[in-house]
Amino acid sequence: MRRGGLTSLLFLAPLLVVFGVFSWAPIVQSVVMSFQKTNLVGPTRFVGLDNFVQVLNDPLLWTAVGNTLWFALLALVFGYPLPLVTAVLISEVRARRGLFSALAYLPVVVPPVVAVLLWKFFYDASPSGVFNTVLGWVGLGPWQWLQNPGSAMPALVLEATWAAAGGTVIIYLAALAGVPVEQYEAAEIDGAGIWRKVWHVTLPRLRGVLLVTFILQIIGTAQVFLEPFLFTGGGPANSTMTILLLIYDYAFASSLGGDYGAATALSIMLAAVLAVLSAAYLRVTRTWSAS
Amino acid sequence: MTSHRSRVAAALVLPLALAACGSSPDDEVGADGKVVLTVAMDAGLEGKAIEAFNARVAQFEQAHADIDVKPQEYTWTAATFTAQLAGGTAPDVLTVPFTDGRGLIERGQIADISAQVDALPYAKSLNPTVAKAGQSADGRQWAVPIAAYGQALHYNRTLFGQAGLDPDKPPTTWAEVRAAAKQITERTGQAGYAQMTQGNTGGWILTTLDYAFGGRTEKLDGANAEATIDTPEMTEVLTSLRAMRWDDNSMGANFLYDWAGINQDFAAGRIGMYVSGGGNYGNLVTQNGLKPADYGVTALPLADKPDAGVLGGGTLAVVSPKVGDRGKEAAVKWIDFYYMGKLTNQDAAVADAKTLADTKQPVGAPALPVVDRATYDKQQEWTKQYVNVPLNQMKPYTDRMFDQPLVTEPTKSTQEVYKILDTTVQTLLTDRGADVAALLKKADADAQATIGRG
Amino acid sequence: MKRGLISPAERATPAIRRTLRAVQALLLGALLLTGLGPVLWLAKAALTPTQDTLRAPLAIFPSGLDLANLLTAWTRVEIDKYFLNTVVIAAGSWLVQLLVATTAGYALAVLRPRYGPVVTAVVLGTLFVPAIVLLVPLYLTVVRTGMINTFWAVWLPAGASAFNVVLVQRFFANLPREVLEAARVDGAGPVRVFWSVVLPLSRPILGVVSVFAVVASWKDFLWPLLVLPDPAVQPLSVRLPALQRYVELDVFLAALALSSVIPVALFLVFQRLFLQSGALEGAVKG
Predict the structure, then answer these.
(1) Rounded distance between C-alpha atoms, residue C58 and residue A60, angstroms
(2) Residues A122-127: what's their mean pLDDT?
């Protein structure tokens, strides 16, 4: 095959232009900006590590880190086992399995913004709110949902889990279909019951995909923005302030112009953590697809 | 591998980075020698209103043959405004809220037009409290105030009626506000009194209440400023709010309101009373579909203390730092013609009021004088026949608004301090165990750190 | 249908069969409640007057239908306009992503220039960089180039998706080389081979990239929020939260329902494609 040449360059041109302007240049610029102060009008100054120091000294940062970890943990507790159980159950459905998976996937299709705005209404804290009405039927509530620093974050996670679980269910279903029947049969010959088959055949076969969804979920939750931004704006009393929301606040919340230096500094620190996770993820998928 | 990769990236990136550097102020001059001036026009206007705007532009261009005015649809958005200003995608002349005036001036993010403004006939007779919002620390007028208001207590007359309160006798003290709120919640099930808490509005309203109780949130001493949040007045404010929230439970179930959100719920009849700008009626009707019969507004209750006052706000016309001297001249002429004309010139005032009335926009909602009282009264007289708001229901406010002392917003790191106070008020309203003294101590320290840094 | 975890022998056991049935009935109930419930509630609320929805949110039409909500949402709230914006944004992003991914995939996998591996490496490198790092500098780039409030500000950055490039490149690399050689022997130039041989052979992967592109664009919020401050060009995702404050509740809920109708309908029609790409997301991402 030909090597080099104008034709190749021509075919690469869209990639080079688009990636150059909208990916590579901003990445480099991001690193540069994290060492600078600018208000876009006056001259730009290099300030060394000042931005990083400023961000690390911001008491809100630690609130945001704590909240983000809390979100991630809650999301794991609610959202990790649920799709797995659902998928295993659906995979044993004989009639109308399509209906089951379609129902599970339906929330994923609802546009995320619509989902959040709808749930925001469900979470109305007055006794006539949707969820509080349901609670009222069984003699509970009214609960404060988003209007209380303690329950706001779990409420966010509940919606996020509802919105995302279906996608994970489908992934697990595909993986479950790939479990060789012979292994189940072999286990049965050894006298294994249903539980032992789940434990000794199904779960080990799913190990790879479980790890993948685990890391993807961590990477996703580390960048949670939509829910706190639309549900609570980080409140009440910063109880749902996440790292990404803080970056947004640094850069875009002040009407006097953002602190772009602080925003990029924090982005880069978050990116460093996520890059390690991504690298781990790539390693895992590689060894997994090789096996 | 890594160094190799980054070198390739650098080669690709360098020319772009260089091209992206900023530029110094310069006038845009057309081929015909006219200076080109882009001016903000409210986004989303109706056809008739756009026609009226264009007619004003034509009039202006006729009077100033060397200026070419280009209208640009523009709405002020906090998140993108300064970047657009710096990137040159904002119009040359635009409007911003009072709150940001000082900060923009200090950071040099808008053009210094004080020389041109001083030449205007009414430069010396601007209402001094109002003019301050557009002045630099040394007293030069970098921005022109074009509208002013004081905070007021808005209330729902229908809910007042249902609760057995007299809609024509709204509360005049904070104790009466509390009692009325309690009665509204008990008899109608709606929030008796609600308050904004989000997106810096929590701080804005808390500061308003502090002023009304006779406090101030900052003390200026030359160039230095001291945060004065942990004060007896602020303690009284928070204690009153806490009593309404936790003892009376008369503040409803939503404690994450921002400006638009509280307007929405008020217009929907879910809120008995709330504090916001005195001229808010227009927004409530045009954007939230408020039923005019529901609406009532009264003067903000003030404590019986010498320093008790009403926090004021308004709109400033500012000029982009990108324009040169000819552009600044032209910009100030446009501000004088378009924005100030409505307030100081009979033909312009009548034409504006007529357009508003024709497009079913409110005319006559309460506002404070930008220039002197005499000019204000004249303007009211000119536009009288177009007034289409229920003036009678605004009487409790308009009867007293001129007698209330107007106080400007805090000047140092205003938005940042508001943001700190957002957290204070959110904690108070959502955490039953919140300790007022500790909250204020923390807010005071945080605000002091912010002011010191800014 | 092939068997799974539970063997035919186990299914024949009455105890297991009963338990299985009960569990599956419960599962169906739970899925109906959580999957369909909120969607149906939204559909109901879209046709209910505001005061009913506020006072008795779970009652079914206590004081009758209010069909005008939908009409008001569509016309006065101009859902049609934002809907169109959403479609235009999705279509443009899709086109740019396909253009970049296919041309680059072709160059890197078929033409294979000498510097190809370097380009591949730099593209792959961006996979490690989370989108958040790009937020501020990309935003400033858009501001400086005057692309703010234009669809280009969304379309072009969407094209810089390393994931697409890698996906397409891998697929192209596995195309049967004999077919490409044969085309070349017949005198087809590189452009011709690309257009008439490679692209038609690549329908499956193009379908996958398309679904990803359209779904991602439909869901995007933060980026269009920043670069499209002018309501006239905003997509639904950005406009809806703002509308919440200016529109009466019943009309707003109608607007939410209208915004969900198309994606939900598309899903019901192309269920298999959606579910397949959904499954693929877990298998190939990375």
Answers:
(1) 39
(2) 91
A 69-108 residues inside an 8 A Cβ radius of C = 86, 88-94, 98-108
From CA B344, how far away is CA C214, in angstroms rounded? 54
For position B82, what pLDDT does the model report?
Answer: 77
| Mean pLDDT value across chain C | 88
Give the pLDDT score at C145.
84
Q: Which of C57, C87, C12, C131 is nearest to C266 (CA)?
A: C87
Side chain identity, residue B131: A
- Give the ipTM: 0.89
The DSSP symbol for B43 reads T
* pLDDT number for residue B24: 61
Distance from CA of B88 to the nearest CA of C (A): 8
Name the band, by pLDDT with cuts 50, 70 and 90, for residue C74: confident
Pull the structure tokens for residue A195. 């539980």
- Beta strand residue intervals within C11-169, DSSP E: none
Q: Are strands B35-42 and B218-221 parallel, antiparallel or unpaired?
A: unpaired
Write out pLDDT tens, residues C87-117. Answer: 999 999 999 999 999 999 999 999 889 889 9
The token pair at B264 is 């929405």
B3 has a pLDDT exceeding 70: no
Flag whether residue B343 sits within 8 Å of chain A, measured between CB atoms. Answer: no
Q: What is the pLDDT of residue A288?
A: 58
pLDDT in tens, B380-429: 999 999 999 999 999 999 999 999 999 999 988 888 899 999 999 999 99
C127 contact residues in B (CB cutoff 8 A) = none
User: Could you tell me the pTM of the whole model?
Assistant: 0.89
Please state whether the peptide bond connecting residue B25 to the residue before it is cis, i.e. omega within 30 degrees of 0.
no
Q: Among A18, A30, A213, whose Cβ lies nearest the Cβ of C133?
A: A30
3-state secondary structure of B226: strand
Contact C236, C224 (CB under 8 A): no
Task: Tell whether the model's pLDDT for residue B107 goes beyond 50.
Answer: yes
Asked if C226 lies within 8 A of B80 by C-beta distance, the reply is yes
C128 touches chain B (CB under 8 A): no
Q: By C-alpha distance, which of C159, C169, C174, C161 is closest to C108?
A: C169
- The whole-angstrom distance between residue B151's C-alpha and the CA centroid of its chain comes to 10
Over 50: is that where the pLDDT of B4 sits? Answer: no
Residue C276's contacts (CB-CB under 8 Å, 6 or more residues apart) are none
**What residue in A sits closest to C106 (Cα-Cα)?**
A11
**Cα(A257)–Cα(C39) distance, integer angstroms:** 40
- CB-based contact (8 Å) between C248 and chain B? yes
In this predicted structure, the answer to whether residue C19 has a pLDDT above a threshold of 80 is yes
B350's tokens: 């009548």
Identify which of C115, C106, C105, C120 has the alpha carbon closest to the alpha carbon of residue C180.
C106
CA atoms of C153 and B101, how far apart (whole Å)? 30
The arithmetic mean of pLDDT across residues B161-176, rounded, is 97
Nearest CB partner across the interface for A256, out of B10, B80, B82: B82
Q: How far off is chain C from B6, nearest CA to CA, in Å?
A: 8
Touching check for B260 and chain A: CB below 8 Å?
no
**pLDDT given at position A4:** 52
Per-residue pLDDT tens for A186-237?
999 998 889 999 999 999 989 888 888 888 888 889 889 999 999 999 989 9
* Among chain A residues, CA nearest to B432: A148
Distances (CA, A) of A16 to C127, C162, C165: 16, 12, 12
* B396 within 8 A of B299, measured Cβ to Cβ: yes
Nearest residue, CB atoms, C245 vs list B20, B84, B260? B260
Sequence-distant (6+) residues with CB within 8 A of A154 are A74
Measured distance CA(C48)–CA(C44) in Å, rounded? 7
Q: Considering only CA atoms, which of B205, B204, B203 is closest in space to residue B193?
A: B205
CB-CB under 8 Å, B287 with C245: yes
